[in-house]
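Contributing: when you submit paired examples, paste them exactly as shown. First protein:
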Amino acid sequence: MSDLFADAADRRAFEHAPLAMRLRPTTLDEFVGQGHVLAESSALRRAIAEDRVGSAIFFGPPGSGKTTLARIVAATTGAAFEELSAVSASVADVRGVLARATERLGSQGRRTILFLDEIHRFNKSQQDALLPAVENGLVTLIGATTENPYFEVNSALLSRVQLYELVPLEIDELEQVLARGEEALGVNLGPDVRTLVARRAGGDARNALNILESAAATAGDEAVTEANVEDAARKRPLLYDKGGDAHYDFTSAFIKSMRGSDPDAAVYYLAAMLEGGEDARFIARRMVILASEDIGNADPQALVVAVAAAQAVEHVGLPEAQLNLAQAAIYLALAPKSNAVLRALGDARKDVREHGTARPPKELRDAHYAGAKKLGHGQGYVYPHDDPAGFAVDHLPDELKGRKYWRP
């Protein structure tokens, strides 16, 4: 009886589930997007179709199809399929799966696929518990994560799996997803409204269907309008993680935009970082570094502006200091560029490492203490303000005379 009640509960839960859950693809033919890894002749598509999927990790932003792909594998494989969420699973849960896999393989000759959602939430000891089973083939591991696995999964486990990066869906791909949603809801958005929903979804298929479902419910028996869509999509998707992939990618893009004299891109990436909750002091530090690294004496004022922005962050704080950061970012982007300071310091440090700290010539050494002159310190020094010939002297150590580090 309990099974009958459970089955009925599952059916009713599915009927009341969000549209995105009800329309989750169950076959590769229904799956939309990710053509770079699921093209007709691709290794992954053929492996799924032929039921020979090896251990793999799918990583990418929300709504790109990671869990859906895993469930398609579950629907097509002849292997036993076990599922754990790293959010709640313990080492004991993992050992339980491995024990069942061992018994299954020994008594039935049947292999086991373990789907581990949010694999980045597993700590090192939990990941280590999986290693032997993945290595000897006791289980085929399929992990899913929104984080870059190179940051979150230990190298021993990474070396034993294939990595597949899933990307946000394109507008036309989201429109295909929405067409299925419209059919399921019995509505017709029209091309302009459908494109608006796709744009507001931010590459996320689940978000697109959620917006559609909410907009359709708001419209009732009337046609869904752009106003309904805007109302349903008030919160724009922010694909930003302060400690992972997006942090490094957006920081890199921000710096390279300023270095490349693109103020529009610099302000955009700055806004994305601030909206994503990035530490304003971190942003300011990066601009202070860039002011010397990429501008230097081509415009010495750049360093003054960058330092002033950093001070404003400390004294004014957010949200007002966003204006100071934006002003500085635009100034740095528009400033003339030179990496002469970076090259000069790099060449000088190379000589220090290769030749050691060569001693200054005696005429440049400290001569203020008693006995220094007896050692010859300061003798022959030409004071430039008394004799302009002092400006023409090569002040480098004897071993390095003639070296040029500063090349403006």
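Second protein:
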Amino acid sequence: MNIWFTSDQHYQSPSIIRICARPFASVEEMNETMIARHNELVRPGDLVYNLGDIFLGRRSGQNKGLDEAVQLRKRLTGQQYLILGNHDELAKEMKEQFVWSKDLARLRSKGLPEGIPDIVLCHYAMRSWEKQVHGSWHLYGHSHGNLPEDGSLSFDVGVDCWGYRPISIEEVREKMETIVPVI
């Protein structure tokens, strides 16, 4: 079993291609590419922490948007946990598709691989978080790679920063090892 993190796929959203200059010709191409990249990495028993904005933010007509979101979610491998983002109206209507959904979560080090401290998960970047002065990490999304690194043990796990795929706990560790903390 592995642990994965991701954020800000915005499945179903045609505007995100333009807004974030994503290299896709259509929503269908974007959706299919991200699903394929996800499923190439994530095995069925793996834990996937999605830090929000997984689907189009609002219904795209009657139940069509919700039905499409449910079908997209069912195609993603792994046990899916959701940290709610600002565009997760559809995801709120399909809570049964996730192990849990929360606004904020803390993964405790005793449940993580050896040497990994507590990790605070939020859709939004925070300047301070629980146990930060004791070396805890913070992972976030929302910013689509547009926030500069600030020397804190935190970074953006959104798909726009990571080749339109989730990143593993080992990749998180490697990234954190490159940060010289400023506390």
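If you have annotations for the second protein, write them as plain sentences, like these:
The longest strand covers residues 79-83.
Residues 3-177 form a domain with the Purple Acid Phosphatase; chain A, domain 2 fold (CATH 3.60.21.10).
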